[in-house]
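Q: I'm building a small set of examples for a reading group on sequence design. Run inverse folding on the following structure and report the sequence directly after it, with nothing in between.
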């Protein structure tokens, strides 16, 4: 039985809500619009996914948010110099990334690789098959002879560990999202 649209949306899109809000807050200067932008982004993604689910949900989510902000800037009657700069900053080319951002990205990648290597073998295998080989949750479950809920839990476990590895030292408190306290991942 195919995954319902609501379950897919919750798992593949709502999982990035905090990242989306940070992105919108960092990119859009009108703080009062952040909630509306987030909701409109969700509506656009949901409606598009009802027709055809994107192969890269996270990328699709952020591209939709970027396009929505660009649309809003274009539609505004008076475009300030600040807004014009914002519109141009949405189209960042890879060559324009500063050496500092490049170094930070490489360090983050090394951190994620260390965190990936420290995952339990089954969890590492599930993440590899699901995120690298881009297999569906059902395909991973079938190949490994486990239930789809186990695949879901292993992905969630890995994502928590990745987030702890990347953001734990930067002061983000992810414990509020957990039902029970978990051992802090040290990566």
């Amino acid at each position: 039985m195919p995954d319902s649209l609501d379950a897919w949306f919750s798992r593949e899109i709502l999982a990035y809500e905090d990242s989306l809000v940070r992105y919108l807050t960092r990119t859009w200067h009108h703080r009062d619009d952040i909630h509306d932008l987030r909701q409109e982004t969700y509506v656009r993604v949901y409606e598009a996914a009802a027709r055809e689910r994107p192969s890269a949900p996270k990328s699709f989510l952020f591209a939709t948010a970027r396009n929505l902000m660009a649309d809003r800037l274009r539609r505004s009657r008076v475009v300030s110099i600040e807004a014009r700069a914002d519109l141009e900053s949405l189209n960042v080319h890879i060559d324009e990334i500063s050496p500092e951002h490049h170094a930070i990205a490489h360090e983050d990648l090394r951190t994620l690789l260390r965190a990936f290597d420290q995952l339990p073998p089954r969890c590492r295998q599930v993440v590899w098959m699901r995120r690298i080989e881009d297999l569906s949750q059902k395909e991973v479950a079938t190949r490994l002879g486990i239930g789809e809920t186990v695949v879901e839990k292993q992905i969630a476990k890995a994502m928590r560990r990745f987030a702890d590895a990347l953001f734990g030292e930067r002061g983000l408190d992810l414990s509020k999202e957990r039902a029970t306290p978990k051992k802090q991942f040290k990566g």
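Residues 169-187 have pLDDT under 50 and may be disordered.
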